[in-house]
Design a protein that fits this description.
The protein is an alpha+beta fold and 778 residues long. The protein folds into four domains: 127 residues, 2-Layer Sandwich (Alpha-Beta Plaits), CATH 3.30.70; 353 residues, Rossmann fold; 145 residues, Sandwich (Jelly Rolls); 90 residues, Immunoglobulin-like, CATH 2.60.40. The protein is built from 13 helices and 40 strands. Strands 12-13-11-14-16-27-30 form a seven-stranded parallel sheet, sandwiched between helices. A five-stranded antiparallel sheet has the order 17-25-19-23-22. Helix 5 runs parallel beside helix 11, helix 6 packs parallel to helix 7 and helix 11 packs parallel to helix 13. The longest helix has 20 residues.
């Protein structure tokens, strides 16, 4: 049905709003007039897509599409308008131009509320996240009206991230993380909130119930609507009445959210596969991973934690390789603001691209050029329909911050080993190009979405490559560029006739810490190390062994550094290879015989499953759980405190280097016990003036030992304490009497001088007494 199309007088012409575009292609030649001669001169260059001020690629296309539709009405009348004219295709999908669009707005300082009021006057809705960042939804007709507000700095579509998960490989038990040492601690995450933003949760898995069968999930916010299996609340609003079922956000993630939540906070159901913080409160948020939604999620968690007066950790096991990789986007900066509060910590996966050459960089000399060639991986496996729809993405960022765009980019196809510069009409059917600049760093961006499979299909040639010629137009200054390819794109290093092979760039695996979470400046960014290298499915009785080296960085763990000298990422490594945790039996296609399943347990007559998964998606929630233990001991820790603790206490995989941090392993492997010791010390008070249990623990000590050496860590300040090692016949083998013990103080007992046998390790303080059985075996 044809519909009338309202004209908007405030919509300005694209030509008057276009900024200088630097992605240039030959202009489409006009049909020759009768008698005209055909020119043999170099064709005129044009920009197939010109960005509008303050708008990203998709919003530019929508604003221009709306303008073209209004011009169509003005010249031909609304009666001639059809559905095709009202639809706009963009890198973010197809949009009906009469509908609304949701996007992010970054404002000048403290102007988010003012912009929100203007958006509402224009018929939209707004959600203010911080004083200079908000999420809005407005009619497409009003995009330019918002862009003209002086308080608006930047408008951008939400960017989607993806879960980080490799194939399942092996089992990993929490009590084995400390290199076969036993760890007995009263800190189990009690009164700390762990929120998990993810996909594919089994809401009432036994791992998320307490010993009485009550849910430990305090809040669930599933915008997808709850599963038909839910027994209550199938709305899209947050609920504290946790239903049976799963979410509709599972986009092939296969139980990802259930697994990550179990690692961080799973309950002990009797199979030793409990989480790091098994008494923490849980918030589950099934997510699309759109950045605007993630911002809302974190704000929701922060508000709930504030109401409950509890510290909180948010786990984010997702990311993308699209972005500047320097933490400078409006999303990164505003997430960082939320994550800088005391008692509130953001934890992110570093990414699983450490074994992939997805990054490229080059210092382009003045007045010189270089070339990049791209393939599409697994093209031959695509169906014809898939070839018509698949695109890959390349995001290129110049590093100059002086507001001068020195880079000229020319796309081409390499056909039969010949460079062919296609015209604007061709590219408008087979790609989207975007040129812009960061309003914060002033770095220039050139982004490409390329339908290479469609090009190959149409030309019946699977060998065609996409290419870019990058030219530094400056006569004096070198221009440095960094770029990342994603969505099945891949660099190709091959010779091109008449072009020096040194000018054809090749990819590497540096700078692969992912955007969307890992590059948030205040996030603890977690890589992975291998803690086990075997896997057994106890249902099928099939076992697997893998060659990964125990204790070393996992091959897939993304590599730093990042393009921000003020932060070091990855921050730390956690166990991420073959980690065993809870599995969602309700996700589409679940099969208990699938090889990554590790075991089935029956709790209160119902079957629940556990599985092994691999990736920094698994190492991040482990670290989230550890940080929850530290926050229980000291609820006032902030991001800087956590990073300092990690720096000072992590196990250095490459010891002896002058710098504690390196791009492969960050500060090293996380050490929960040593970190707990420092967290307690940071909260400690002078025992002469204060003996209250400031850590919140009712037990006096944390114990760590391996049968030879035992460490006794005091959870609270004590006026006095007696530590004894007693034989079963009552004989005191070792004893120490302590006075004025500070919180975080540690005593070490070497038991190698004792004869083999069973002993009792006894700690007595004015308020408590504990006894622990110790086996000495030489």
């Amino acid at each position: 049905m044809k519909r009338s199309f309202p004209l908007v007088s405030s919509l300005l012409l694209a030509s008057s709003l276009a900024v200088s575009a630097r992605i240039l292609v030959p202009a489409t030649p006009a049909p020759p007039t009768r008698g005209a001669t055909i020119s043999t001169n170099t064709p005129q260059l044009t920009a197939p897509y010109e960005a509008l001020p303050k708008l990203d690629a998709t919003l530019t296309l929508l604003a221009k599409g709306y303008q073209q539709a209004t011009q169509f009405i003005a010249t031909r009348g609304a009666a001639q308008l059809d559905s095709a004219t009202l639809q706009q295709t963009t890198p973010d999908g197809n949009f009906q131009l009469l509908n609304t669009v949701a996007f992010n707005i970054h404002t000048t300082e403290n102007k988010a509320e003012a912009v929100a009021q203007q958006v509402q006057k224009l018929g939209g809705t707004a959600n203010v996240i911080t004083e200079n960042f908000l999420l809005v939804e407005i009619p497409i007709a009003q995009i330019q009206s918002v862009a003209q507000l002086s308080e608006v700095v930047e408008m951008a579509m939400p960017q989607r991230a993806y879960p980080f998960m490799k194939e399942a490989r092996k089992m990993s038990h929490v009590d084995e993380i400390h290199e076969a040492k036993e760890l007995y601690t009263p800190f189990k995450g009690k009164d700390v909130i762990i929120a998990v933003i993810d996909q594919s949760f089994e809401f009432r898995h036994a791992a998320f119930l307490d010993k009485n069968g009550n849910s430990r999930v305090k809040w669930l916010w599933d915008r997808s609507g709850y599963s038909p299996q839910a027994t209550s609340n199938q709305s899209k609003s947050a609920t504290d009445k946790i239903p049976v079922g799963t979410d509709f956000q599972d986009r092939g993630s296969g139980g990802h959210g259930t697994h990550t939540t179990g690692i961080a906070a799973g309950s002990d159901v009797g199979n030793a596969q409990y989480g790091v913080a098994p008494e923490a409160d849980i918030i589950m948020i099934p997510s699309t991973f759109l950045d605007s939604e993630v911002l809302e999620d974190v704000k929701f968690v922060r508000n709930k934690a504030k109401q409950a007066q509890k510290p909180w950790v948010v786990n984010m096991s997702f990311g993308t390789q699209e972005g500047p990789h320097d933490g400078s986007t409006g999303y990164d900066q505003n997430m960082s603001l939320v994550g800088k509060n005391k008692g509130g910590i953001l934890v992110a996966s570093a990414g699983n691209d450490g074994d992939l050459n997805i990054h490229v960089t080059h210092n382009i000399p003045a007045s010189d050029s270089c070339f990049i060639l791209f393939d599409y991986k697994d093209y031959e496996k695509l169906t014809d329909d898939q070839k018509k729809s698949k695109t890959f993405t390349f995001d290129l960022w110049s590093q100059s911050t002086d507001k001068v765009d020195r880079l000229e980019v020319k796309p081409f196809l390499l056909i039969n080993n010949k460079v062919e510069y296609m015209d604007a009409a061709f590219w408008k059917d087979h790609a989207w190009f975007h040129t812009g600049s960061s309003k914060f760093t002033h770095k220039h961006q050139h982004k490409f979405w390329v339908k290479l499979p469609q090009v190959r299909l149409e030309k019946n040639d699977a060998t065609i490559l996409f290419g870019l010629k990058l030219t530094n137009t400056d006569k004096v200054q070198v221009e440095t560029v960094h770029g990342w390819v994603s969505q099945r794109g891949a660099y190709v290093k091959k010779s091109i006739p008449k072009i020096d092979s040194k000018r054809i760039l090749k990819g590497d695996n540096n700078y692969t810490v992912a955007d969307a979470a890992g590059n948030i400046p205040s996030a603890i960014t977690v890589g992975a190390y291998t803690s086990r290298n075997t896997h057994t499915n106890t249902i099928t009785k099939k076992s697997f062994n893998f060659p990964d080296a125990i204790g070393q960085r996992s091959y897939f763990s993304s590599i730093g550094p990042v393009l921000n000298d003020k932060v070091k990422k990855p921050t730390v490594l956690g166990p991420g290879a073959q980690v065993c945790s809870a599995m969602n039996k309700l996700y589409p296609g679940f099969d208990e015989k699938f090889w990554m399943i590790s075991e089935k347990v029956k709790v209160n007559g119902e079957d629940y499953y556990y599985a092994d998964m691999q990736g920094t998606s698994m190492s991040a929630p482990f670290v989230s759980g550890v940080i929850a233990l530290w926050l229980e001991a000291n609820p006032n820790l902030d991001h800087n405190d956590i990073e300092e603790i990690i720096d000072k206490t992590s196990y250095k995989i490459y010891p002896g280097k002058s710098n504690n941090w390196n791009k492969l392993t960050g500060y090293g492997r996380i050490d929960a016990y040593k970190g707990l010791k420092l967290a307690l010390q940071k909260a400690g008070k002078d025992p002469l003036t204060s003996i209250e249990r400031v850590s919140g623990s009712t037990q006096p000590v944390t114990l760590q030992g391996d049968g030879r050496v035992w460490n006794i860590l005091f959870n609270n300040p004590e006026r006095s304490a007696t530590i004894s090692v007693v034989a079963l016949d009552g004989r005191v083998a070792l004893q120490r009497n302590l006075q004025q013990v500070s919180q975080g103080h540690e005593e070490t007992f070497d038991l190698t001088t004792l004869t083999s046998g069973v002993y009792l390790l006894r700690i007595v303080t004015p308020g408590a007494q504990i006894t622990h059985r110790v086996v000495v075996n030489h």
